[in-house]
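cron nightly-structures :: item 1 of 1
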Amino acid sequence: MILLDTHVLVWAVGDTKRLSRAGATGINLRELGRLVNRGRIQTYGTVESSIRQLLEDVTIRPITYEIAALAGQFPDAYPRDPADRLIGATARAEGLTLITPDENIRRSRLIKTVW
């Protein structure tokens, strides 16, 4: 299992040219393409309907007490954005590789990242 930064997920579905080669390799793009072609993932219509459809094929990881506590313990050098801290803590707590273009997260070396 891998963990995707939110905008990486959006790019994987609608704008794959924005993904790095390593990021694209980490995501099963062929499977995403199949889902789009079969109409399982729709990249048109309202934002709400597109997100709802997309999330039917994605596992949402819960924010556990462990993840929340870990996010608060990251050093000051780690990005201060709460969402960045939560996604980093999720990756660390669950031993997942995070696919992200965010240079500040990748520079931290607290978690394994791909881009």
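cron nightly-structures :: done
Residues 82-94 form the longest helix (13 residues).
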